Every structure is written in C-alpha cells, then in structure tokens.
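Model: Ready when you are.
Researcher: Fold this.
Model:
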Amino acid sequence: MNEAALMNARTVQAWVELKGEDPEAVSALEVARARLVAGRELSTLRRVRLIELQGVLPEAGALSALLDRSTRFYNPNKERCTVCSDPGEQPPVDAGEEVVLVTERGAERRAAAERWWHHETGTHITVREGVAWVLGFAPGTEAAAAVAALTWVRAREHGLLCNPHSQVARIASGAPPRPWMSDGVGQVAGKGAS
C-alpha cells in the first residue's frame, strides 16, 4: 500500500443484529437470571456481531452497498446492519448499556471476506469479527462489577459470556472504541479477571 493510501486508511464498524428475537441471547439472559448472582440485576441482553473493516474504504453509501451485496458480511433478509464510519456515529447501544466484545483466540480475521472484498474492489482490507454482548442493568446496579462477573466463565456459578481458554473478552469503558479488535485495544485477559 502506498503512503497516500495509508494516510486514507480508516476503521469502520458494522454492527449486525437479527431482525427478530435472538434465541441465543434469550437463552443466555434466562441462564444469567436463574443461575448467576450478577445476572439477577440484568434487565436486557443482546448479541450483536461486530465486523471491523480496516483499510482504504469507500464513503458510507458505497460501503453499505458493498456489505449488503455479499453474504460474507450479513444476510439483509434476516439481519440489520448499522455501519459506523464517521468518528461521531454511535453504534446501536443505548445510554447506560454496557458492551463486552468476545473473539475467538487467533480466529477473528475473516479471510473469505477479505478475498471477496479484493475481488470486488481491487483493494486489500483487513476484516475482523467478534460478538458484542450488550448488557442492560436495573437502575442502581454496580454495572462495572456485574459485567466483570458475567463475562469470564470460571465455574458453573460464575461467568457466562467468554470462555477464557479459547476466547478473549474486551470490556468497553464507555462507548465502544474504534478500532476495537486491533491488538491491545481495550483487551482484557480472561483467566485472571474477576
């Protein structure tokens, strides 16, 4: 990539969520409320696929059209995609909700999506994907402690969202950062976390 292209490189996030009820999120919410102390104050739990694209990318409209055209990113018949391309754009997270990003160790890169992009546009980009869990708590809940308690699975009664042996969790403090999946950005080690 030449120097001018590097200067125009940016990171865009695509937040992909099912249009209907997500059975995995419903099940996780029921388990959290029934079996985990920290889950008793959990009022909502949503699962959103987060796709980050890094490189020289087109403007927002053309980018959305490209994402919509390929099943490598999402299925517009059953999912909705919110693209956050400008620094001021907010992801589909309400005020007061907490977000935990979970990625598989070493497997967040989407090689097939990168090849499709290169074939369609002639440019190389990096595509990463993870699962963003969006948690809403009852008023008065100490959200930071509850999120930490719900994130890492340590025993049958502790944790829900991330298996620290095969996954990495990153907890956003405030709005989710961009980029979020680059090495070291908002990363929290799983095994020793409490």
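Researcher: Now this one.
Model:
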Amino acid sequence: MANQDLSVPKERETEAQTFGLKSIIARSLELTQQDVDLKNPSQFLDGDSRFLYGFTESTGKVAGFLKMARTQETNKQLKRESVGMAIARRIGIPTIGILDPYQDILEGYGLIHVEQLDLDHGLILISPELIAGADPVYGARAARAIANAGGRVIPPDIDSIILKRGDWRNESPETFWKVWDEQNNSVFDLVNANVVTDLLGRDGKERLQKIIEETRTAIEPLIDESGNPNVEYFVHNDTAPNNIFFSDDGETVILLDFEHAGATHNLMLAQLTDLGNFYGRMWPNPEMQQQFLSAYLTKSTPEALEYNYQLLRATAVFGAMFLAKYGMKLEHSEHIMSESLLSNLEGNLAFLENTYNELKAMNTITVKRE
C-alpha cells in the first residue's frame, strides 16, 4: 500500500507537466491542446529521452510532427536540424517540408514542426531486425538517393554557420586519416587477434591489412584533389536506414534527421562520410550492401566510373572498419555487427570489382562502336 500511495503524486505530477508541455506547444504553434498528441512525455520529463516527440492535426492545417528540446546542447542540435532541412530543400535534396522552423520558447525549450510522413504508404528501416528482413532493393534505392544528395554545394548566400565543421571524418584529409588509422588499429589490436582469425581464417589479418593499404593508396590522391577552399559541400553526417523514408511508390526516397548536418571543403570526404555510414549500418543484410554498391556504381557516367569505383571500395572498407571497432569483444552487445561487417567485406569487394569490370567492358564496347 505504501508504494502505491507514493506513486500517485508522481503520476499526478507527470500529468500536470504533460499538460503544461501541451499548452506551451499549442500556444507556440497556434493550435489547441486537443490538436497535440505527445508520444514520450514521461521519458522526456525524466531525462531518459533527449527530445520530446509528438503529432499535430487540426482542421484546415497540414498534419505535423513535432520535436522539442530543452537543454542548450539539444536546442542547438534541433536548430541545426531545422537549418539543415531548409538547406537540403534549397539545394535539391528531397526531405520533409517544414511547417514551423526552429523557435526558442520563453520557457527554455526549442521546437520544430514538420510535415508528417505517410507511414501507411512507406517504410523506415528503424531496427537491425527490419533491415535483415527487408528486400535488398532498398539498398539500391538508398544508393541512388545518397548519390543524388552527396556533395551538393552550399550556396554562399545561405547562412550555414550552425552546420558542423568539426567532424574528423570530413574536416580535412589529415583528420580523416587519423580516424582511418585509429579504427584499423582498434580492430587489429592484439586482444582481438583470435576474433579476426576465427572470422577470416589464419591469414585473414594479412589479407585485410593488404586491402586497407591498397584502398588507401588508391584514394589518398583522390581525396587530396577533392579539396576546394572556395566551396563548401553539404554533409548529412548521419545517413542510416533509420534516417531514410522509402515510399511505397518504389521511387520516392527522402532523407530525415539533419541534427548532425555539416559542411566540408572536401568533396570526396563529404561523399565518403555518408556512403560509408549507410553501408555499415546495413550490416544485417549483406545482399542489401551489394545492391547499394552496385546501384551507385551503375549510375556512373563513363567519365566518373573509375572515381566512383575507388570511392565505393573506400566506402566498404571505411564503413566496415569504422563500425566494426565498436563490437570486437565477444561479450559486446554489438559483436554480431562486427562479425557481419568483417566477414562479408571481401565478398562485397569482389562483387563490386566484378560490377566495375562489367561496366568498364561495356564502356569499351560502346567507344569502339562509336
């Protein structure tokens, strides 16, 4: 009885605070409280969730999705998300429409309000289980979307100061190679020797190190040539299956969640960051990874084929090693991820090479005919 009695005030306090949040949101968005449906108020109030999520629906207005923050850091992330979406739309990257851009609220909260996704006619791959069971064609669709978005130039008249410019994956070639070396050293640490051997065989470490060295030799000059101090390229910085919406129409793909959106002066590092992250996050579905690589390469013009082939080799190597380092220990909760990424890397690279050779041969035949 005592425990039940103690829980009542807490429940009533949460109800009162939730009512207050709905009042603040309704006032800020010029809606009524009845128009606002909050999904995780208890977790947000208890500090277990960085953001408060909810939906809005009102007669005569577009149904919306809201996201609220309440600390200096998360408010900044939310503002970056709002600005990132606005920039993405300006430069032609498909994303959701903004109903109300970021606003600071007197109570210390930050709030954005965007259009609702039609989840009855589309899909977001929000978990490894969904990725594992998904049609591999989603990999091809994602590749075409990221190819379309990757490396877009940020117009100089756009205020993009809030975008991240300190991500070591794309800040500069020097910072990228530090990440490259650190992740590889972590995977090849002596404490992981048995894991690598079990996954790749007795000479697996040497084969993988050779792949990494050959990949670096191929892409280092391309990265150096891709820098332009007079231009900034847009980077999503968090491309993952749970940040992409696939419409049931088989064509429409839109990018979501721009809270880590950034800018860099290096085109290849901008592309490699987003491609590598998505490739790695597809680890539960190796066939989806292959379709991702194949679709991106197949989209190449003859002039861009060699560049894209080397970019995609680096995508597979960097994407695999960057994430594999987190779950190398057998007891780690993400060890299955590391196993998948490392054990499928050579096969995926062989598949990519075959695709490249086929496309190269086709281009040669076309040139001869002309």
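Researcher: Key takeaway?
Model: The first strand starts at residue 36 and ends at 38.
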